[in-house]
Amino acid sequence: MNIPNQITISRILLIPIFMAFMLIDFGWGEVSLLGTTLPVAHLIGALIFIFASATDWVDGYYARKYNLVTTFGKFLDPLADKLLVSAALIILVELGFAPAWVVIVIISREFAVTGLRLVLAGEGEVVAAGNLGKIKTVTQLIAIISLLLYNMVFAIIDIPFGEIMLYIALLFTVWSGWDYFYANRKGLMTSK
Fold first, then answer.
1. How far apart are CA 90 and CA 64, in angstroms?
2. Cα–Cα–Cα angle for 112, 67, 58, rounded to 5 degrees
3. Is 62 exposed, middle or buried (CB count within 10 Å of its CB: 0-12, 13-18, 19+)?
């Protein structure tokens, strides 16, 4: 197994560790940083999420630079991303930081686009991530990180930045999902 795929697997293995820090009360107290107070365990969990999210860029860069792109990696990398983001979004609902309906729409779009990609892959077509999909990913990550960090920095000026970014992410999630289906409608209609 090559290094980019090992990095991707490490991202998946970080998910339960991230979840443990976010969901288990370790009784480590709280920390005040940049206008907000949050449990120490949540700060550690947020840092784990940030690190795990960064590995997505690292494995992709490394795979392309050293020509280590594999079929296994093409399958596993987006799966790892979806698992990490889904886990974070569900945790945000559990903590009361995100509305369940927003999370359901976001996760449903991810399943739908993954299904579309699988159908088209069966027909020999590869659906690459478009610019809207990349913007969707960035806005989702900014929203999740902001909410995991209790709106750090923006809490000083009383702006619900994480919540605003979540709705912006929702907009790009729906828009990019519609764009994927519209752009690939012919391939979808002719699939057997």
1. 32
2. 65
3. middle
Chain centre distance of CA 181: 20
The closest of 8, 39, 12 to 23, measured between CA atoms, is: 39
Query: Which tens digits make up the pLDDT trace of 37-60?
Result: 999 999 999 999 999 999 999 998
d(C-alpha 36, C-alpha 101), whole Å? 26
pLDDT digits 0-9 by tens, 73-122: 878 888 899 999 999 999 999 999 999 999 999 999 999 988 888 787 77
All structural domains of the chain, each given as residue ranges with its CATH number in brackets, are 3-190 (1.20.120.1760)
What does the pLDDT look like over 110-164, one tens digit per residue? 999 888 887 877 777 766 667 898 899 999 999 999 999 999 989 889 999 999 9
